Amino acid sequence: MNRRELLAVAGVIGMIPAARAFAAAGDLRGAAREAYIYCLPLIEMAAARARMLRGDPAGQPAAINRFGSTRNLAGPQNRTITSPNNDTLYNNAWLDLTKGPVTLTIPPTGERYISVALMNMYSDNDVILGTRTTGNGGGRYTIVGPGQPGQGPNTVRLSTPHGWCLGRILNDGPADLDACHKVQDALTLQGPAGTPPPAYATRRSPWQDYFASAQQLLVSDPPPAVDGVALQGLARLGIMPRGGFDPAKLDAAAAKEIEAGVAEAIPAIQRGNAANIVQGWNYPRSNIGYFGQDYLFRAGVALGGLAALTPPEATYLRPVGDKGAGTPLNGNYRLTFPAGKLPAVNSFWSLTMYEATGDGQFFLTPNKLNRYSIGDRTPGLRKNADGSLDIWIGRDDPGGDKTANWLPAPASGPFSISLRNYLPKFELLDGRWLAPPLVAL
Description:
There is one protein chain. By secondary structure, the chain is α+β, with helices and mostly antiparallel strands. It is 26% helix and 24% strand. It has helices spanning 3-14, 18-25, 28-54, 177-186, 207-220, 228-235, 252-271, 295-305, 426-429; strands at residues 68-69, 88-96, 102-106, 114-120, 125-130, 139-144, 155-157, 162-170, 188-190, 276-278, 281-283, 314-319, 333-337, 345-356, 362-363, 373-375, 389-394, 406-408, 415-424, 439-440. Strands 10, 11, 12, 14, 15, 16 and 19 form a 7-stranded antiparallel β-sheet that branches. The protein is globular and about 70 Å long. It starts with a helix and ends with a strand.
């Protein structure tokens, strides 16, 4: 089914009068909760786009159909996107394919890791180009939108008319910045100027504004046909890909139910985001980065790790918190990799520290070492006599030689860490390599 046929189906759904849809629903609270969850990635993508297009000097700059680049590794000042890494420089662009295709040029990078992810507005990675998929020799690609003609090995398709083009370029430290900048400058987009998007509500907006913006985004970037059942649920609130949301049609009792459902949504997302827990680490589901109909998980990643890659590209592990899955850490810990048992990757690994916000987001945190991650490129790490590697994690400096292996936590408040594994080997993907447990001190 193509998008024109999808809109026709949505139009049939939309023919049901709003009052009849509300009556048939029976549970407006549940419908509102599920609608909030379904639409959250659209809202978060639109919010990220707005922040980047504003050109926040402490954020990740971008333009429409043109790259903006971050020239230094992320630090505590970078609050544009939740869970930023401290390993790569970013090139960011927001795509508008409504006026025609865009040409992407990726330069040769030698041995340096690079990936360019093309994400649709529902936060799925439609395409990932670079080291793992197309190699490090570079290439020129034509990006087309839904319904646009195009074929051939160098034509790639975005499933929504708008989306995010995110390039990640591995950096090995300050001395490597000039070489990284040359790669960034050669990573280019060419195409129509595109149209600046309107302003949209955020997840913190009143529910009336949130759903009104979700309605606009559904019209701008129609969902896939396979979301038909979810769309029927949205239609209970009058939200449809052809338009129709009008909170004025709701009486006070209905509005109260919707408000209650929205209040349940974020806690539901946080509870439902657990995956496969092994040795105290939360392993990602296989559908991270391309979520299908797993809307609750998709919403959780949009909230806590927007722009997550698929597992073969990067596998992200988070530890179970002090109070169980989905909760943060709040103490001092030791992580020991036995000799010969460092993360099984074909590119790089790192352990990144984040302060945890009350609404489920994660950002780099200031500390006296100005160290935000530890990994295979960290200078001065000290191994033990038997070849094992201890990493000390927490607020308190472990002192002496251990300071070289210390990942400082925020001075106060909850925190979390992320173990990133880029181009994981099969033994990590199939469970033969397991991250060692954190030991509380």
